[in-house]
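Journal club prep, notes for RB
We'll compare a predicted complex against what the paper describes. Inputs for the adenosine-5'-diphosphate case:
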Amino acid sequence: MIEAEGLTKVYGDKTAVGGVSFTVQAGQVTGFLGPNGAGKSTTMRMIMGLDTPTAGTVTVNGVPFARHAAPLREIGALLDAKAVHTSRSAYNHLLAMAATHSIPRKRVHEVIDMTGLAEVARKKVKGFSLGMGQRLGIAAALLGDPQTIILDEPVNGLDPEGVVWVRNLVKYLASEGRTVFLSSHLMSEMALTADHLIVIGRGKIIADAPIKDIITGKGHSRTRVRSDQPDRLMHVLAGTGVSVELQDHELLEVTGLDPRQIARSALDNQVLIYELTPLQASLEEAYMELTKDEVEYHSLITTGAPVSAQSGGN
Amino acid sequence: MSTSTSTQPAAGPGRAAARNAANPGPGPSFFRVLNSEFIKFRTLLSTMILLASTAVVMVGFGALSAWGTGQFADQAASDPGAAEAIASQGGDLAVSVPTSGAAFAQLILGSLGVLLMSSEFTTGMARSTFAAVPKRLPAFIAKLVVVVVSAFVVTAVSTYVAGLVSVPILDNFGLKLDLASSQSVKLLLVTGGYVAAVAAIGMALGTLLRNSAGGIMALVGLFFVAPIAFQLIPGEFFEEARKYLPGNTITPLTAVEHVPDTLEVWQAALVLGAWVVVPVVLAMILLKKRDV
Ligand SMILES: Nc1ncnc2c1ncn2[C@@H]1O[C@H](COP(=O)(O)OP(=O)(O)O)[C@@H](O)[C@H]1O
Ligand SMILES: [Mg+2]
């Protein structure tokens, strides 16, 4: 279990993470979704004790990462940026990591086989593709057979087969009762992998809910309404958290109220409505909805492209 | 621990749940971290190349210097300047031949010290290193031990081999070199210790600057540029300060008798010690404090 409490990171005058609080439960895959620059990697580095929080705390199984007696056996992490000396072979990298915790050579071979690196393990990491680099990072994360696994954008650069493999791996790890915390800027990826979703934008938590709630757009449901008195209906429905948009002659789109509430208001106010259609938000739409005021890089969201260029030093 | 099956992604179902939460297994003790740092050290080809080139340069310069010294000894009778240089080694010309490549060893192994730490940061390896050893200082100290010991051993062994190569060459000129004499042994040990100190300073610079080029430039500036600059700048202050540069402690440390315009032996040892301790302690404090 990972618990963050008012976790904050300020770089100079830039607030990368602005006082987030969340809990990542064991036994399920928790997705950490947010556009690039939202603060996902920074949050994960703070969990791993690599960046010191400006304020707030984060613990893993109740203890700050650095205070664990055997950190690699508690938490394994694949961090966004490469964390390997590229002139060393994958095998020697893992061997050196394993040595810090007396993890046997046998386990090094195990994780190499698990991640499909057997053929390239003796080669210098320099020549690795992005996907092989990700596999090596995952191998390193699994080395200590940790209870908690943190993966920052693990599917970046993986081929479709690799993507499916990561998906199955994280689900399997969660089914064993482990805590799995996985970041991505792609809603579609999260929809297929995560059980629970924490959405972050500009360093703030925007949503923290089971994935199915976010998919069905709870609290963000949209309804198409036709009425012969659209102006009057707009007036009647207006309220906090509700937005009504006149889309066409007699056609309204209402957000923030469910169809029953709309029908009730219409009845109470004697307004005739002749269409009432709940609009199921797609995942992508729900994500855009959630982050629309929080997006730092609009172009990224509108194109939906998996941009790998980083906005700052990770 | 339960049996593991390689076909499954993790190491066997239920293993996570079955693990004893209170005692997850061995953690990063200093010995383990030292072992890890040694593995990292020996699995980089560039490290091995730098060590080998140190040996080659030391032995090569020893041989070259043996030949040069032989020539020089012939002229020494007629050259008053030469006589002075001989005096600092108690009249024994040949004894300092095996360590004549030490200035290069110092540059190469000092740079190695810089690189071993700066590359952690430039490659991102530091994230792996300090995730495995979140207290950070054990990893720093382990690396320092590896750097210092390897610099000492390589310098000492190369000095000895350079000596073995030089003996027959000097013999041709009628000069005797006794590798077992107390001054030979002292030169070998002190030079080895001195180069190890330079490597430690290099590692501290690499940790502070986190940049290979910057670290090596700082090292070269301190050991090669500053002594010359201090000599060129007129004024008593620079003349005096020059003695306290780390590179100028080696002469008093290895001399048989006190050489004019240098520190006393005990002063030189303290000054060199300070040049090591101050940057190393600063590097440790900042490494602990800064984000990786
Ligand atoms: N070391 C750093 N120094 C300065 N700014 C940083 C640093 N790391 C991240 N940032 C900034 O903090 C914000 C969050 O970055 P990051 O955590 O990498 O986001 P994400 O992983 O969600 O894309 C970005 O605006 C980024 O530029
Ligand atoms: Mg990131």
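Talking point for the session: Chain A touches chain B through 52 residues (CB under 8 Å).
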